[in-house]
């Protein structure tokens, strides 16, 4: 029973560490969310600036997994090239080493417990100051992270006690197989990181085990190499339902880290010897002999490995790109699924909004194509071709329904993450846009049903009626093209006045047709069924145009 409680205490400490890291990361993202979005969205294919950007953002948000998931989302959204994505991921591997230095320098050099509660005391007022909540969250997260580390250190058994001799003997026996031992511990580090889903948390656990004397420097180094492989799993999971380019970006992360682990294992003996000599010259203690020197040595090893791996492989990004393209060919069947919104793991914080923007632009283009079917259906005389195009219109309507639900669900999940006021308002406007785009799809389908009903009832419009409806089709096409142009401008250059001018022309023309129709009915110029069909057509067109102007107004709200 005591052993079970001890295990639960360690697991709880890891959980507190992870939660503290998440709160601290979320707070930082809210503080710098817009800037990060701007930096990543403007990233070019310059491999060196990509590395620097990846390192900087990961240092800032303290999570390489979050950065790589963001990158996968941005590649999926077409905001980042595959070359740029690989460079950013390489930089993320460097940025994540900062966590190990924070833990080894602050967590082991002095008792962090003495400042935990003062930090919380400073943080608490910020939580109740409007606009400053993110600062409080960051400080609270920082305190929780080190509370978790403190609990992990105190919860870890004293392996010097005789009762733990079998554990030490077992680890020692696993270390007696030469290079095979390194491979074994690399695999253990990989599996543990996949389970914990955080290389930073696993690094903290490894540092604590080193400080307690459970494992030596060589074993710890092998575990760290495994952690570098395990951390790539998160991005690969997030890319499972993404497009081919996003899958390639996630795979490139795995390829990059696997290549690094291979050369590091080949050179592990001289590599660790150099690190040991360097630490001994600085700290006055050899990590191969003294456990107290291992945390700093392990942090140095982690940094040197990732920096060296990046300096070597940054020159081979084109080759890595060719390899992943060969391994993951383009999937032509992706047209009828969400292309930009990631499945599974979501990108972090306010960066989650960018994939939704891209998906909404794709949604808009789809309804524009769908609307193009209407004038064509109206003109078609061939029954077989009409049925084929009508079936296609129905299929598009089903797709627009699904897109609305999936984008709305995604945006709802994003809004639950606690975003800034501006981001929350942006999501609210985006939900309105999605709703109106789906309504345009519904209106297109209703128009196609009206045309089908006209054909089945053998209703014939006069040439004058056809001409007037064709003019209405043209005006509505102008409205939805303007809507699409405004959406494609990334919400910057929004032509509200032009969109409203088109809407006014449509309303005036609708009023004109209504007046003429009323008079024609009085004069018995056409049958009741023909009149109903005709008036339904122009009324539905005007209704569709209303949804288009609603989209432009929502975009304008985001801009403001």
Quick structural summary:
The protein has 560 residues and is mostly helical. It contains 22 helices and no strands. The longest helix has 40 residues, at 2-41.
What can you see in these coordinates?
The chain is mainly alpha-helical and 560 residues long. The protein has two domains: 2-333, no CATH class; 354-559, Methane Monooxygenase Hydroxylase, Chain G, domain 1 (Up-down Bundle). Helices cover 79% and strands 0% of the residues. The chain has 22 helices and no strands. α1 packs antiparallel against α7 (133-155). The longest helix has 40 residues, at 2-41. The protein is elongated, with a radius of gyration of 30 Å. The model is unreliable at 331-336 (pLDDT under 50).
Write the layout of secondary structure elements.
Blueprint: H1 2-41, H2 47-61, H3 64-76, H4 82-95, H5 97-106, H6 113-126, H7 133-155, H8 165-174, H9 179-196, H10 199-211, H11 217-230, H12 232-238, H13 244-266, H14 268-283, H15 294-313, H16 317-327, H17 353-379, H18 383-415, H19 421-456, H20 463-488, H21 496-522, H22 528-559
Helix pairs in contact: 1-2, 1-7, 2-4, 3-4, 3-12, 3-13, 4-13, 4-15, 5-10, 5-15, 6-7, 9-11, 10-11, 11-13, 11-15, 12-13, 13-15, 13-16, 14-15, 17-18, 17-19, 17-20, 18-19, 19-22, 20-21, 20-22, 21-22
């Amino acid at each position: 029973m005591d052993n079970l409680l001890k295990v639960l205490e360690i697991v709880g400490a890891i959980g507190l560490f992870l939660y503290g890291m998440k709160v601290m990361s979320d707070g930082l993202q809210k503080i710098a969310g817009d800037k990060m979005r701007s930096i990543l969205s403007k990233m070019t294919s310059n491999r060196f600036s990509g590395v620097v950007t990846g390192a900087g953002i990961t240092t800032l948000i303290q999570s390489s997994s979050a950065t790589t998931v963001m990158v996968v989302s941005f590649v999926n959204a077409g905001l980042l090239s595959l070359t740029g994505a690989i460079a950013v991921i390489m930089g993320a591997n460097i940025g994540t080493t900062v966590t190990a230095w924070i833990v080894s320098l602050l967590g082991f050099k002095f008792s962090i417990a003495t400042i935990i509660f003062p930090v919380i005391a400073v943080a608490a007022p910020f939580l109740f100051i409007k606009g400053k909540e993110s600062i409080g969250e960051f400080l609270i997260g920082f305190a929780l992270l080190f509370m978790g580390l403190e609990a992990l250190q105190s919860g870890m058994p004293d392996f010097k006690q005789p009762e733990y001799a079998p554990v030490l003997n077992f680890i020692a026996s696993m270390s007696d197989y030469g290079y095979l031992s390194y491979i074994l511990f690399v695999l253990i580090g990989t599996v543990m990181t996949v389970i914990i889903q955080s290389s930073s948390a696993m690094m903290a656990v490894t540092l604590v085990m080193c400080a307690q004397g459970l494992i030596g420097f060589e074993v710890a180094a092998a575990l760290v190499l495994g952690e570098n492989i395990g951390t790539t799993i998160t991005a690969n999971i997030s890319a499972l339902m993404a497009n081919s380019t996003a899958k390639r970006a996630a795979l490139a992360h795995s390829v990059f880290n696997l290549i690094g682990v291979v050369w590091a294992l080949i050179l592990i003996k001289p590599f660790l010897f150099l690190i040991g000599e360097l630490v001994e010259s600085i700290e006055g203690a050899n990590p191969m002999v003294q456990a107290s020197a291992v945390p700093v040595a392990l942090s140095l090893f982690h940094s040197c490995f990732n920096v060296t791996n990046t300096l070597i492989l940054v020159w081979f990004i084109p080759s890595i790109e060719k390899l992943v393209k060969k391994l993951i060919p383009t999937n032509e069947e992706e047209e009828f699924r969400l292309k930009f919104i990631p499945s599974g793991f979501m990108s972090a914080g306010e960066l989650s909004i960018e994939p939704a923007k891209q998906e909404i632009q794709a949604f808009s283009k789809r309804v524009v194509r769908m609307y193009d079917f209407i004038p064509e259906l109206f003109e078609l005389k061939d029954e077989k071709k009409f049925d084929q195009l009508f079936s296609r219109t129905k299929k598009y309507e089903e797709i627009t329904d699904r897109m609305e639900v999936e984008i709305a669900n995604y945006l709802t999940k994003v809004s639950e993450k606690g975003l800034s006021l501006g981001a929350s308002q942006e999501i609210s406007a985006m939900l309105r846009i999605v709703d109106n785009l789906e309504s345009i799809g519904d209106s297109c389908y209703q128009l196609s049903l009206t045309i089908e009903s006209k054909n089945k009832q053998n209703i014939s419009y006069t040439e004058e009626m056809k001409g007037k409806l064709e003019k209405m089709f043209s005006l509505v096409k102008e409205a939805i093209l303007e809507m699409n142009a405004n959406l494609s401008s990334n919400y910057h250059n929004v032509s509200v006045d032009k969109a409203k001018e088109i809407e006014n022309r449509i309303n005036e023309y609708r009023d004109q047709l209504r007046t003429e129709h009323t008079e024609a009915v009085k004069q018995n110029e056409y049958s009741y069924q023909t009149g109903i069909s005709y008036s339904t057509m122009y009324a539905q067109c005007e209704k569709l145009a209303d949804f288009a102007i609603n989209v432009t107004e929502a975009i304008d709200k985001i801009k403001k």
